[in-house]
Amino acid sequence: MTLFRIRTLLTISTILVMSAARTSAQSVNAPAEHGPSDHASITHDPTERPLTAQEIVSKHIEALGGKERLQSINSVFIEGVAVAGNGTSVDTKLWKVYDRLYRQEVSFGGASTVTIVTPSRGWVTSHDSKGGYALIPSKKLRAMQPELDPAGALADYAQKGCRVDLAGRDTVNGHACYRIRLSCPMGQFVDYSIDEKSYLILKEKRNDASSLEFADYKKTPEGYIFPYTIVSNDSGEKMNVERVEVNHSVNVDGLSRPK
Questions:
Q1: CA distances from 116 to 6, 160, 192 (A)
Q2: C-alpha–C-alpha distance, residues 29 and 39, integer Å
């Protein structure tokens, strides 16, 4: 079962964690044919000054309420349900606590998979491991450290040693989008499709080729905006988010242990 595994879920992660916004559109990104350029810029109106990748990301952050608002997110809990092609219900729970914890639990057909990431160690299990946990290799663990930021990968990307570049344009469900590539030190990258009008993310594609689309953005009771529909382009399966909690109490010590 590959639906919403750690490499593709997300970045509700990446996205997934959004500040109070007054807009509700979205966006998409993909790599340029000859690779992204630091100095490239893009515009759809010849009378407008072309936007750089950095400016597009800044507008995305502002559309979510601004940098300070995003930095106020300390923890996020997300719960959603999907239905696999064979009719099996797939239940997903995701916790993120800033610089302390990432935990994902996926249950289906009486089985489950669990992924745990902390700053120093990580574990993973699956439905065929009979409940046992395996340590995540150190290289992969380092590459997964951005998951510990519930504000998302684009918040403070430069401070994390990452960079953003223009990677062309895209259209997602009829919405014109900027394609922005986020590249990080461990070699991982994510292509985001960002709506040209709302500056919200409509699609993300990772360097493992997994791809997600985001829709049905709503405000949480705390005033943050999240996509409540997430579609895996790999399988075509759709997850409906049923609950989002921001800055609620989280048992970090308990959830950080493989059990």
A1: 10, 21, 25
A2: 17
Taking phi first (over 0 means left), then psi (-120 to 50 degrees means alpha), and beta for anything else, what does residue 73 get?
Answer: beta
Q: Please check whether residue 31 lies inside any domain of the structure.
A: no
Distance CA 64, CA 78 (A): 18
- Tens of pLDDT, residues 196-220: 999 999 999 988 778 999 999 888 8
Report residue 59 as tokens: 């507008």
Q: At 253, which helix (H) or strand (E)?
A: helix 252-255
Spatial CA neighbour of 179 closest among 48, 6, 37: 37
Domains contained in the chain, number: 1
- 113 and 1 Cβ atoms separated by less than 8 Å: yes
Q: What is the value of pTM for the model shown?
A: 0.78
